[in-house]
Amino acid sequence: MEINIIPGEKLTIKLWETLTEKGIGSLLRPWQMRREGRAAIDIRCEEIVRLAQAERDAEAITRGEYRLENGSGPKLIPCNEIGTESGTRPASPLASDATLAEIAQQVNVADTIRREVNVAKAILHAEAELESDPQEPPAEKIDDDWLFRWRDNASQVSSEELQSLWGRLLAGELKQPGSFSLRTLEFIRHLSQEDARKIEKIAPFVVNESIIVRLDDDVLTAQEISFSFLLELQEMGILSSVDSIGVQTDYRSASPDKFLKALVSFKKMLLVENDDKDKILSIAVNAVTNVGRQIMQLGKFSANEAYLRSAGAKIKDMGYEVMLADCISVPPNVRYYNGVKL
């Protein structure tokens, strides 16, 4: 009998094997064990509802409305009001040492719940990222130090947008261990939503995952990519050489027969050609740092076509034939289609 494997199922199984082995995602594990034979969307809804309830429970504990007790099993019970018997009041507004210890314990419980909820939500985002990916799981495992650092960092994020980012980070590392450095984890830990928006703004102008082409600054300025904005990205650690003069990249041919070079920006590309195979294409650029390149892998960006057309026109003026085309990555190559000569 032929067994149909759902796209992404192997990667999802690999994800849960990796997390379970290290005791990560404990809030989700009981539901994960009940997944077989149930619709994925039903399970996802149940998980989200339960995580939302866990968040509300943590907030109630923090406000002092409930406390967690462990008798025959952990459960939430309403906190008794102080000084309600016979209309009496506490003798002192200061809590006793025992009360302070209990308050500290309950605050710690609430904080632990919040952290576990944050990790669980990031894991759900990772699972969603993997569930339609047919890639075979790699033989390599995620480094333990990396995984525990990921857990600690993801536990501190309550923003849905940033939880999604941490989820994509875990999914990417699972698919190819070593893709994201500990330095990148540290960078993302300090990433604010404003910083994320700056990266989203510059991403459509990145070519070959490594450069910002500076052939026509008027196009960049029209898109609010000013020199001061580029300097901000340099200070963040995303770009380099912004304040340097005369920085350029020299491209040699990728073909032995003629000059041929692809300048790729997500799903668009410029195909540059010339009959002289020894010709060198020199382009003024700002470089994207290693951290910047890794961060760019996490987003769902698209190229700025007006920017590519302008860059292509400038390259054409240098004596090259230039084609703008759609493309798809088929490692180690890039396939293009719908090409239009500029």
Quick summary:
Helix content is 45%, strand content 18%.
How far is the first residue's CA from the last residue's CA?
54 Å
Order of SSEs: HHHEEHHHHHEEHHEEEEEHHEE
Question: Which spans of ≥5 residues are poorly predicted at pLDDT below 50?
Answer: 33-42, 81-97
Can you count the helices?
12
Which structural class best describes the helix and strand composition? alpha+beta
What's the overall geometry?
globular
Q: What is the percentage of strand-forming residues?
A: 15-25%
Give the helix level as a range of percent: 40-55%
Report Rg: 27 Å
Number of domains: 2
Number of strands: 11
Largest sheet: 5 strands, antiparallel
Provide the residue-averaged pLDDT: 80
What does this structure look like?
- This protein has 342 residues and is α+β, with helices and mostly antiparallel strands.
- It has 2 domains: 9-82 and 92-189, no CATH class; 202-341, no CATH class.
- 45% of the residues lie in helices and 18% in strands.
- It is built from 12 helices and 11 strands.
- The chain has helices at 9-21, 29-32, 40-62, 97-130, 144-154, 160-175, 182-189, 193-202, 217-222, 227-236, 290-296, 305-317; strands at 66-69, 75-78, 206-207, 211-213, 239-240, 248-251, 259-265, 268-274, 281-288, 321-330, 333-341.
- The strands form 3 sheets. Strands 3, 4, 5, 6 and 9 form a 5-stranded antiparallel β-sheet that branches. It has a 4-stranded antiparallel β-sheet with strand order 7-8-10-11, with helices on one face.
- β1 (66-69) and β2 form a beta hairpin.
- The protein is globular.
- 27% of the residues are buried.
- Mean pLDDT is 80; it is low at 33-42 and 81-97.
